[in-house]
Input
Amino acid sequence: MNSAFVVRGGRPLRGTLRVHGAKNSVLPILAAAILGNGRQVIGNCPQLSDVASTVRILRYLGCDVAWDGGVVEIDPRPMTRCEIPDFLMREMRSSIVFLGAILARTGEALISFPGGCELGPRPIDLHLSALRAMGADITEEGGDLICRARNLTGRDVNLTFPSVGATENIMLAATSAKGVTRITNAAREPEIEDLQAFLQALGANVSGAGTSTVVVEGGWPLRAARYDIIADRIVTATYLSAAALTGGDITLTGVCPAHLSTVTAVLAEAGCELAIGQDTIALARHQPLKAMKPIRTMPYPGFPTDAQPPVLAMATRAEGTTVFVENIFDNRFRHIGELARMGADVKVEGKVAVVCGVPRLTGARVSATDLRGGAALVVAALGAEGESRVTGLHLIDRGYEHFEQNLAALGADIQRLPE
Ligand code: UD1
Output
């Protein structure tokens, strides 16, 4: 836990790397696994602390879980509990996605309120109002959410914002509801399509994921399935940003390039050469980085908020000024102060960050403030002159499997040392 990355920057990343499975797919899919009747086998599961937290929740619920390398096997049949206690919810706020799954399986759920996280308040009003509209009786008592829904009913649910977690929770609850649930203004993220594909493999009647309208006809008996998680598009964006910043030449395999089109467009604009294959992205940079047109984070298919920090880290060394507008989360610039210690010139006002490129970054002692902000500090350290020490690795370990080993295999000088 108390360790640090020691990075000696300035080495271009070179080589080939297979990108691991998507954190934001594996979490809802592992929650969805409790809906199946039999042993679920989920492949391409990344070895991340968030996956470990999810496995702990599944075991607490009484599921039989085996996790070996990239495969998690879950048998929900011995499940006895329908509650997630506070100490497990605190490990990972996004466990709220278990609410819809537990309700669908047992008709009741007791979950401690997820509260805020490093990115600021994490409201769940959209989740709760949709579940209430479907017939769930939800009371909030002393920090707990007590939910009862013996007979969920399919409804038309219009989300006022295309929330990823709310769309997932409604889809999960709707698999057990009587009748048809139609979610309009649904989130369109690739992870929603991945969840739909898994639910279909279980035998659920779900369609429309990837568009703004997702339709679920509930009440179908669900079976066991074998399923492989899609590649992590944010991890892909992080390695691409690091290769771009260091003037490297890398090929990432096992990826879905269509999920990254806004990110690769921006990297090309910055002066990188990209070669996009069916499931590969190669990036090389031979000329100086150039500033980019304003980058505004938006729900998918817009520019992803999770890719903003690593791309911003890259922009600190571009010639000229790049403006970033963060439209999804309030606290997504908290690591900028740490970047400044490395010599970055970034001014933040509200949801806007103005990045004036500097000719060089210099190594410094910095501390991760959140998962993607922490990854951005590693990207900056790889492109900085001299030695950096990055602490707060428990935050980075939530989302990057074998981060330092992978970067070292690409030629980076990075080591994990005790603090
Ligand atoms: C998911 C991702 C996260 C990503 C985010 C946006 C997972 C595990 N996490 O988070 O990495 O950054 O999508 O792409 O998949 N909101 C409300 N009320 C609600 C729900 C959300 O106001 O009931 C707001 C949030 O405060 C935030 C915005 O909607 O400002 C986006 O949140 P949402 O799409 O729900 O993100 P998550 O599912 O939490």
About this structure: The longest helix spans residues 233-246. Residues 202 and 223 are 5 Å apart (CA to CA). The mean pLDDT is 96.
